[in-house]
Amino acid sequence: MGQRGRQKGSVGVKSKEAILTIAAEEFAEHGFHETKISTIVKKAGLTQPSFYLYFSSKEAIFQELIHTFHHKLIHLTKNSRIEPNLDKNILASKIARGLISIFKFFDDHRHLTKIGFFIADEAEEIKRGMVAHITENLLAEQQDKYFRQDLNMQIVAECIIGAIERLTITKLFTNESTPQQLANEIVDIYLYGLQNTES
Amino acid sequence: MGQRGRQKGSVGVKSKEAILTIAAEEFAEHGFHETKISTIVKKAGLTQPSFYLYFSSKEAIFQELIHTFHHKLIHLTKNSRIEPNLDKNILASKIARGLISIFKFFDDHRHLTKIGFFIADEAEEIKRGMVAHITENLLAEQQDKYFRQDLNMQIVAECIIGAIERLTITKLFTNESTPQQLANEIVDIYLYGLQNTES
Amino acid sequence: MGQRGRQKGSVGVKSKEAILTIAAEEFAEHGFHETKISTIVKKAGLTQPSFYLYFSSKEAIFQELIHTFHHKLIHLTKNSRIEPNLDKNILASKIARGLISIFKFFDDHRHLTKIGFFIADEAEEIKRGMVAHITENLLAEQQDKYFRQDLNMQIVAECIIGAIERLTITKLFTNESTPQQLANEIVDIYLYGLQNTES
Amino acid sequence: MGQRGRQKGSVGVKSKEAILTIAAEEFAEHGFHETKISTIVKKAGLTQPSFYLYFSSKEAIFQELIHTFHHKLIHLTKNSRIEPNLDKNILASKIARGLISIFKFFDDHRHLTKIGFFIADEAEEIKRGMVAHITENLLAEQQDKYFRQDLNMQIVAECIIGAIERLTITKLFTNESTPQQLANEIVDIYLYGLQNTES
DNA sequence: CATGAATGAGGATTCATTCAT
DNA sequence: AATGAATGAATCCTCATTCAT
């Protein structure tokens, strides 16, 4: 069928993706309200009505971007459950690996991350999800005696998310640190603490 | 009679303060753009032109709130430099005391905190200031051998600010934890780390 | 009566005059709409309600200034009727004298002139009055054979007013010419024309 | 069918021109401040946002009208340089022809003229340009001995512009005189003066 | 004579969104 | 698949003017 390959939808798909990409940029840089549909379509070489061919509203495309971010993030964390029975040295690197994958993901999707992790109202909920996930992991490891028994792991998880948040903005997105470096620093700090045990 | 005589201008002052209070509430809850001047003045029992009697624009009052927050915050952290020559136990409680005062301050000024620490574009800068301050303190203590020599204290500071940020939103503002509890948890986590040293 | 001279009204009179003077300046410089009552009273060291102690509205003070201008102008032109039976040389200087008095008057009341002769809607009417007056004079002199019989004196009068208007703005108010100079130039041009009668 | 095919954009052009025409009317009649965008668009059968489809602000459309006037005026005066070597009778009719074209232009563009020659702040500058142009012409003719040597031609030019100004308002726009009549009267007055040379 | 405080009324401008083609 | 044209619905802001003291 259709040997002349009037590749149905390909143009539209391209337009839609152009809009999505540019919108992500704009939202990430200027926030929701300061981003104008007019600007997006202009940058995409389209007109305003075309926008509504692909998205039902400004709110809708914003949600779509958030959803994409959230979806990818969930997918990412799905496989990161730490297997039991590993010795302490390996634990550290396991944790580091998890953090690396998060930072890498953020690094690879800067605009989406800005939107879904920092700008959106839903960011709070997304973080809550991550905190829950991390808490679970930590609890398991706590149970396995890798971690101190007297710690409130939910609070720990919040601290880690907070750290990730900050470092993403100030170190990762400024290109001052790599995912690896950041992950290692976090592991080092949280695992062993600040206290000087020498002397 | 009235021992304070002809309270010149007191009415206007009251109106201005009413506007400020309500504006803080609104901005904190709805953000800059979703906050309407009309709503603010209505809640203050005034009309729109009155607003402009006290503030030159919506932007201006927002800035004033940010400034107030920043100003108070700076004032707070001014006295918090840790004195040298204290043993380790005291150090912990010293640090805790600093954190308590921050959480207390945030707790006492929830709206301002939401605005100046979470909503404003300037929040980033304000946090940067706090990070710098904390970094300084940490470095001094590191020099005094209280802390491990191999840690990048700026990164540590970022982690702490991130933790404060998160815990403020999820534990403090939800009334799930007190400033004391949060401060203690942070000290415990960051000073000693997660690692189980028993066994 | 009243040896203590609580000069009744003197303060008010002073305030009113201050307002009038400043208002004239402002209207002259910025026109009606761009002149704000708030600016006037500020410059007069008063508050807005005080303004309404002396003038019923912005429109009212503007009218008062126009009226003052018009009144003075009418007073000026009342005595300027040219007496009959003068020879041609004297005629020229008579006319010049009339023009000098007008230019002097404009020069002495620059703000009022700007308002009443250039800014006000009523300026048109005021000019019409002057044209009528000049026309009358010219007609008398035409009847006395001093002027050409074939000229439409109303048109001539319009031309003279037009000349006065322009020269007031471009030469008088810029201090490039004195009333005398301008009057002489006008007399010279209009009496003898441009045409070179030599050769 | 339809020899001009798919008239792309013709509707928008029509709307823009409608707005321009009506705006010229309104500005001419009521001045800048008393002219409301709401009135303009209402008369054009449009809504307020449509106005901003074609003009960026009220100030902008006003400037556009002024510019149009100025542009046309400059175009008009470009060809009006008087060629040398003409005898006196022809000179008069040459000058008359120039004046006719000006009055005709003003007559054909009453609204624009009101705006650009009487209402706009830029009117002064526009007149200055005309004065300069006229002065140049007069000087050339003076050099060629057509005009008296003792006259300050800039002042003469100012007088002529003043005359044009006045006569435009009082005779042309009231339909009391035609461009031809006005031009002839001016030539007559300025060339030969008022003085009765008979007797 | 004067003012601190307040407001009614309106006006320009913006932006997401839609209609007809 | 796309667009020229248009708009509904707000929002910020301004200014002359007034009231109570």
UniProtKB/TrEMBL annotation, chains A, B, C, D:
Q: Which residues bind DNA?
A: 36-55
> What InterPro entries does its record include?
Homeodomain-like_sf, HTH-type_Tx_Regulator, HTH_TetR, Tet_transcr_reg_TetR-rel_C_sf
Protein name according to UniProt: HTH-type transcriptional regulator YdgC
Tell me which Pfam families the record gives.
TetR_N (PF00440)
Q: Where does the record place the HTH tetR-type domain? A: 13-73
Which species? Neobacillus kokaensis
The keyword Repressor is annotated on this UniProt entry:
yes
Report if keyword Repressor is assigned: yes
Record's keyword terms, sorted: DNA-binding, Repressor
Q: Which Gene3D superfamilies match?
A: Homeodomain-like, Tetracycline Repressor, domain 2
Matching entries from SUPFAM superfamilies are given as: Homeodomain-like, Tetracyclin repressor-like, C-terminal domain
